[in-house]
Structure formats: structure tokens, C-alpha cells
TrEMBL record:
It holds the Pfam family DUF2200. This is DUF2200 domain-containing protein.
Length: 121
């Protein structure tokens, strides 16, 4: 196994519940709300509030989280740098989906307008 595939596997096996509190902290420190975070997650994944809470309480991995998601058809419009990578150039589909979510959380925390984050403009 190469270090690149190790990286992808590590990301796939992380639980959404382990990362979620960091998302909340990041956006709330910048004056955004948990509700806005949930709106962004829902836009990307199609999960409603109840499904999102269940995935958190069940401690599902990112692999299963995105397997259950209905990825927004406009997700491909999420571009830019995250963690030193251009999200549109990430070849592993699951890693790209995780980084899409990271990018949306970053945009929310940076104060971007919701219409721009949700790619409706």
C-alpha cells in the first residue's frame, strides 16, 4: 500500500462524529451557527436534520456517510484549495467528497454568503 492509499483509507475510516464537533467549533468561533452548518451539510449530502443526528450518534465512518448521501448535483462546482490540494483535482472520489465538505465548512467560517456557498448564484 502506498502512502497515498493509506491516506485515503484513513480518511474513509474516520467517523463523521469525530470530525463534526470541529466543524461546529470552527463555524461558531467565526460567528456562524450550527443551523447554518447543518444547512451546508444538507445541501451537499441530502441529509435532513434527523438523518444527520442519527449518523452522528451511530458514529458512522465517512465511507458509509457518503455512501448513504445523495450528493448534490452541483457539488462539482466546489473548487479551490483545501489542505494543500485543489478539490477539483482530487482523484479518489470519497476523499474528494470529504474535501468538498471541508471546503464548504471553510467557506461558511470565512463569512461567505450562503447563496455562494450553496452555489445558487
Amino acid at each position: 500500500m502506498t502512502s497515498k492509499s493509506d491516506h485515503h483509507e484513513r480518511m474513509a475510516n474516520m467517523t463523521f462524529a469525530a470530525v463534526y464537533p470541529h466543524y461546529v467549533t470552527k463555524v461558531e468561533k467565526k460567528g456562524r451557527t450550527r443551523e447554518e452548518l447543518h444547512q451546508v451539510i444538507s445541501w451537499l449530502t441530502g441529509f435532513n436534520e434527523q438523518a444527520l443526528e442519527k449518523h452522528i450518534s451511530d458514529k458512522i465512518t465517512f465511507k458509509h456517510f457518503f455512501q448513504k448521501a445523495r450528493l448534490n448535483p452541483n457539488a462539482h462546482l466546489i473548487t479551490g484549495m483545501i489542505c494543500g490540494y485543489r478539490v477539483e483535482e482530487i482523484e479518489n472520489p470519497l476523499t474528494q467528497q470529504i474535501r468538498y465538505l471541508d471546503k464548504l465548512v471553510d467557506e461558511l467560517a470565512k463569512g461567505k454568503k450562503m447563496e455562494k456557498i450553496l452555489r445558487t448564484e
